[in-house]
Each structure stands twice: as structure tokens, then as C-alpha cells.
Amino acid sequence: MSCVRLMVLAIAFCSAGCGRTEPSSELSANDIAAIRATSERWVAAVRAGRWEDVAATFTEDAVLQFPTARYEGRPAILRWLETTQPWTAARELHIDEVRGRGDMAFVMGHSTVTPDDGGSPVVVGRYLDIRLRQPDGTWLFYRDMVAPVPAPTPK
To answer: Please, which residues bridge with residue 111 across strands?
Structure first.
């Protein structure tokens, strides 16, 4: 099953489970700020190649899912991270939507890369995260589904 299909099913399941056609956001402004802070911490660590700090933004039992690979648990996620390259300043992470209630939130977004020639940013990936509030008030990644967006083909 494709990652995009999993994202659609996750959103539909959550909407149905809440008994509403559209999920409501019952998160406080502090919760949303803490969710954004985790994303900012993640980006800063990825740019610096601090893979243990990146892994620390995931719960111990987190799952990182790509269309062709799945990493279960923080140690497996760290091992995968250690095989990747740090992001350059040209790559940005964007949060498009945050919804949730209680100790669970759903975060949907995308990442872009700005071409070297300074052109318009190009979307290179989409993601859907499930985050869990921790006792210290931080929000860690519990499930992270990432789907790369293929580069457009020249005409």
C-alpha cells in the first residue's frame, strides 16, 4: 500500500473514530507551539547532522514509514538517520495543518527545496505525523509517514 494511501486512510479513520466528518482541533496554543518547537528542533538537528538529537524527537516505539522502507523503534530510526546526509539551508520543512485532542496530534506538511539558481521552491516530500504529548509537555513523533514527491519531468 502506498504511503499516500496510508495517509488518506489514517485521516479517514481518525475522522470516523471521532464521530465527525471533520476533525476538530482541541489543542491549546501551548500544545501547538510545543509541536512546532519539536519540528524546529528536528530541522536544526538534521541540518547539523546531529542524528542522536534527531532520533530523540521520536518516541522509543516510534515508526518511520517510507513507501519502500519501515523503521520501527528509536534505535532503528537512528541507524537509518546515520546513513543520511544533513539538510542544506535550501531545504525547508513546512507544517500545513495541526489537529488533535488530549495527548495526540496529527501533523500534516511538506518539504521544499529552493533551486541553486534561486527559483521558486519545489515540493520534494509530503508527510503525516502522529505526535504524542510527553509528561514534560513536549510532543514527540510516534508515527511518521513520509512520501517523496518525484521531480517534474522537463517537457
So the answer is: 93, 125
47-77: pLDDT as tens digits: 999 999 999 999 999 999 999 999 999 999 9
**Spatial CA neighbour of 72 closest among 88, 59, 89:** 59
C-alpha cell at 1: 500500500
Give the Å distances, CA to CA, from 45 to 42, 51, 69, 75, 88.
5, 7, 22, 17, 12
Residues 128 and 108 sit within 8 Å (Cβ to Cβ): yes
* Span between the terminal Cα atoms of the chain, in Å: 30
Q: Strand locations in 7-120, DSSP E?
A: 58-65, 70-72, 91-101, 104-113
